[in-house]
Input
Amino acid sequence: MNIIVCIKQVPDSTQVKVDPKTGTLIRAGVPSILNPYDHFALEKALEIKQKTGAKVTVLSMGPNQAVAVLRLALALGADEGVLLSDRAFAGSDTWATAYALATAIRKIGSYDLILCGQMAIDGDTAQTGPGIANQLGIPQITFCSNVDANGNQVVVKKLIDGGKQILEADMPVLVTMTMPVDYAPKYPSFLAAHKAQEKTIYTWTAADIGADPGKLGLNGSPTRVDRIFPPPARQKGEMVSGSPAELAAKLVEILKKESFVK
Amino acid sequence: MIQIAANCVGCGKCVATCPFGALSIVNRKAVASASCTMCGACVSVCPMKALSLPATGAVKKDLSAYKGVWVFIEIADDGRTQQVRPVGFELLSKGRELADQLGEELCAVVIGDNVQNYYAELSQYGTDKIYAVNAIAYRNYNTLSYANAMITLIRKYNPSVVLFPSTYIGRDLSPRISSELFVGLTADCTGLSIKEGNLIQTRPAFGGNIMADIKCPDYRPQMATVRPNVFKKVVTTAGRMATVVEERITIPVQAGKVRIVQTEMDPVSENQKLDEAPVVVSGGRGMKDKEGFELLETLAKTLGGAVGASRAAVDMGFKPKETQVGQSGVTVASKLYIACGISGAVQHVVGMEHSDVIIGINKDANAPIFNVCKYGIVGDAKQVISKALEQLKK
Output
């Protein structure tokens, strides 16, 4: 069985600060990490590898430094890495990203299961996984908390509004993963990281994957930013200050005035 | 990289706008670094019109052929009964405004089994037309069968706008469709409007404390998802019946490759409680620890409400992800919202600003949360709530 895991390098959101003047992120010095949803998807792929001996290929699109997340994935146990890196990909929205990744997956060739994180924490769109599945013409199951593969079928547990569902699907299929509430990503030992240096990472350009230039980067991105602006200012309400006891009394008074307590 | 023309005067407006810190002024000219993602946020702020994205080779479609504002209506299934998920009514109400501005029809699209039961209810929100795909084979949601039905309808009738709820189903279905049709899709919009015939899709973006207006000027239909509780439902055509167009669409063979084995509904999910609760008490970093959140549980119980959390509190492990209020969590529109020890980043604010009465408790008098509060209490949230609970007990 061949598994492909799509992964993305993102800024560590827990360490990002916002510039109070411009409202934009202060990115300088913020470490990059493997998107946690992708990290979990990778761990699930490696569990399946343990059981079935599947080959796990990791695929990422990004600048050259994104090779770091591929190295991490190889150290954790993935077999091979592919980095899509080319200026032609710059300016890609989710449409163009899914197109580029799907075209690379076609070049990788054989796949039975494609795993993705449900979304990247720096975009929160959850669109790239379904986009890849559509481009490849295979089914998708999104927002899964568990995935298991046996024979030529996968069984997943997925979140639905107000509950959970167990589904089975014939491979090839693309599955996007959510992550557990208190998920703590696993990191490789120094030895594993060292050994993984021998594994291969291919770097492919747009020409290498035979992509249609009309569907890459800005050409393949229907969305445009019209403008960015600070959140609208509003009139401040009634402000009170004082000792904790005074403020507590004030809170109770407000709750009474607004009829939330008698 | 963004293109900077020779008429740049080095005023620096673009530098302050760039969400990626990729622009700087060198020798009185703007210069873009390799961090430029070509997001285009700087283009509209340049007073000299010196900034532009590289021209694309996209073939311009005749957009005038695309007319109509469509809303995908999701059917909620609790395991026993089915009914329209209320976010559908919210989207129809907003869709009516958009359709009026465009001078186009508002259409509800409903796929399922026995959907004729919903026609009267769907007609009340200003709906002109209902497209229905009504067959027992559509009773349960299936990505490929629903996507095929939507794609078939869109190709046949060419709407200009299609709105989806940002639910598990809407977020699964809409990107599949936008990928197939090669059109734009904006996730989790907090505002929708029309400008020069284009749908302007507003959402917090680039991770910071900034909002972005997104448009898709060269592609139709324009597609967007919106979370429940962002727009208010408004009955505008009580008693009127929309024109119903029923379509027969065969389910593609491939849809059978994914099969439901078992569905298990949560007795009452915390998530559901949150977005339906009349009172929401939310905590952030300022609640300090789990003990702080226990105080919030007690306060919520006293007020008959539910407890939510900010992203920071979720990241710190005080509350599960399902209770996160905000852009990447739940959107609430409660009668009372108490934000405790929450600074009020825009990601949080867009998830609660539609609540009727908002009380903020934060020790920083300049915290942005106070900009949306009817009452602002400047003090240590944990201490204030602890003392208020003592008084409420009396």
Summary: The first strand of chain B starts at residue 3 and ends at 4. Chain B has a mean pLDDT of 93.
